[in-house]
Specification:
This protein is an alpha/beta fold. The protein is globular and about 80 Å long. The longest helix has 21 residues. Strands 3, 13, 14, 15, 16, 17, 18, 19 and 20 form a nine-stranded mixed β-sheet that branches. The chain contains 14 helices and 20 strands. It folds into two domains: 143 residues, Lyase, Ornithine Decarboxylase, Chain A, domain 1, CATH 2.40.37.10; 257 residues, Alpha-Beta Barrel (TIM Barrel). It is 30% helix and 22% strand. Helix 2 runs parallel beside helix 3, helix 2 packs parallel to helix 10 and helix 5 packs across helix 6. It binds pyridoxal-5'-phosphate.
Length: 456
């Protein structure tokens, strides 16, 4: 490809050398699971999200293995909001995962995918009455978040003339700050205990589970030890004082992926705690505290990002290059913050998808939006690429294809590469018809000319 002329500029460079992370500056990645980036772009256009089924399954099996080797009653439940593409959820369900949903929409999606009601965990601060009614009918595990939900469930129990089994979300001090106290009922100030005592006294709801999600991208395994310890001791208090038998402990999600936070110096792939470290502290603590329960509880995990982030790639093309007025070089990519919600938190790996010059410069990578905030990366040592060349952005499998914005640009297609290296489109690229199908124009606006009426 003929390279575009770029005005010469003197700057220090690191030709062909290893940088401090051991990466040669000339490195590139031109395929995903054996499928060429160039052929994917040709078939599906750019930008393009690509998921590796092999990585999803490997990550799941590794995590499930780590936990179930250490504690026999373990159940993973796929956190839909992390990535609710039907194809991705289907992989997790095939592997044995239940569904963890936090809205009526997600609940309906899980049902449509054929997840049995009793294998759906219903969390979140807003569960509309109709959704609760359906979840009760389907015998789902409902973890109550607030008093309104408790009142609504009590009303449903009265209508059904039978008690309803529920779990309760607990928030507690696990040493992670700021603590997510807005969800559920607090352990330390006794609001959890007094709520349960009140709920128990009516006999309309039967408490079966304790749920707690302390936060996300938690870098401290010890916080889970504290969580399990506090939940177990709380279960004991409920057993001793209210004769409540807790059957499951759901510790939510929160384990980090291999991504690198903006505040981290070294790459996350080298420094973030791995799933086995979390499994060890959690299972050891639970094993040591089984006497807090009438029988060993089911341990539920709603791990999201740690299972899916690494399986997702975003292919993006360079659509322009320019020097800013201070001389800093920049590239304009066709994928920006509209598709990369997580660029707010992470320094994703951004790798050229073809051989390139070994001269690296400190650059800015912009997205395609006509918005000043559309910066994919404010500083990166990067080679000068030309329009039409591609980059691979990774890991982007968690939260981006659920939190992406349809803003200014159509959202791109998504492809899954199966374990045999065959690729499948799992979501089509948006187009004008799709974008306008929910819109309508009132008749008076369809007339070509506006007939002005005098205003009184
Ligand atoms: C209740 C609940 N469970 C599970 C998750 C998944 O968390 P993560 O992706 O950090 O594992 C979340 C995300 O915030 C959540 O709110």
């Amino acid at each position: 490809m003929k390279r575009e002329y770029q005005k010469p500029r003197i700057s220090p460079h690191t030709e062909g050398s290893m940088n401090k992370f051991g990466h040669a500056s000339g490195s590139y990645k031109d395929s995903i699971d054996g499928v060429k980036v160039s052929s994917l772009i040709k078939e599906f256009g750019s930008p393009l999200f690509v998921f590796s089924e092999r990585t999803v399954r490997d990550k799941y099996r590794q995590a499930a293995g780590e936990f179930s080797h250490k504690y026999s009653r373990v159940q993973f439940s796929w956190s839909y909001k992390t990535n609710y593409l039907d194809a991705i959820c289907s992989i997790f369900h095939q592997e044995g995962s239940w569904a963890e949903v936090v809205s009526f929409f997600e609940y309906e999606k899980a049902m449509r995918l054929g997840v049995p009601g009793e294998k759906i965990i219903f969390n979140g601060p807003y569960k509309p009455y109709e959704a609760l009614k359906l979840a009760v009918k389907m015998k789902s595990k409902i973890n109550v978040d607030n008093m309104e939900e408790i009142f609504n469930l009590e009303k449903l129990a009265a209508e059904l003339h039978k008690p309803i089994d529920v779990g309760i979300r607990i928030n507690l001090d696990a040493g992670i700050y700021p603590a997510w106290t807005r969800f559920g009922f607090n352990l330390e100030n006794e609001s959890a205990f007094s709520t349960i005592a009140k709920m128990h006294s009516t006999g309309k709801l039967r408490l079966k589970g304790l749920h707690c999600h302390i936060g996300t991208f938690i870098m401290e395994p010890k916080a889970y030890k504290t969580t399990v310890q506090k939940l177990a001791l709380f279960a004991k208090k409920l057993k001793d004082e209210l004769a409540i038998k807790i059957e499951y402990i759901d510790i939510g999600g929160g384990f980090p992926s291999s991504n690198t936070l903006h505040t981290q110096y070294l790459p996350g792939s080298q420094t973030n705690p791995t799933i086995d470290e979390f499994a060890k502290v959690i299972c050891d603590e639970l094993m040591a505290r089984t006497d807090c329960f009438s029988s060993p509880p089911l341990l539920i995990l709603e791990t999201g990002r740690a299972l899916i982030d690494d399986a997702g790639y975003l292919i993006s093309s360079v659509v322009g290059a320019k020097r800013l007025t201070d001389g800093t070089p920049s590239l304009i990519l066709d994928a920006g913050v509209n598709l990369l919600f997580t660029s707010t938190w992470y320094k994703h790996n951004i790798i050229p998808a073809q051989p390139h010059s070994e001269f690296l410069e400190n650059m800015v990578l912009f997205g395609p939006l006509c918005m000043n905030i559309d910066i994919v990366r404010p500083h990166i040592q990067f080679p000068s690429l030309s329009a039409g060349e591609q980059v691979l952005i990774h890991p982007v499998g968690a939260y981006n294809v659920t939190q992406w914005m349809q803003f200014i640009q159509y959202r791109p297609a998504i492809v899954l590469i199966d374990e045999n290296g065959k690729h499948h489109q799992v979501r089509a690229k948006e187009d004008l018809e799709y974008m306008t199908m929910l819109e309508s124009i009132p008749a008076h606006l369809k007339e070509k000319k506006h007939k002005a009426k005098p205003r009184k």
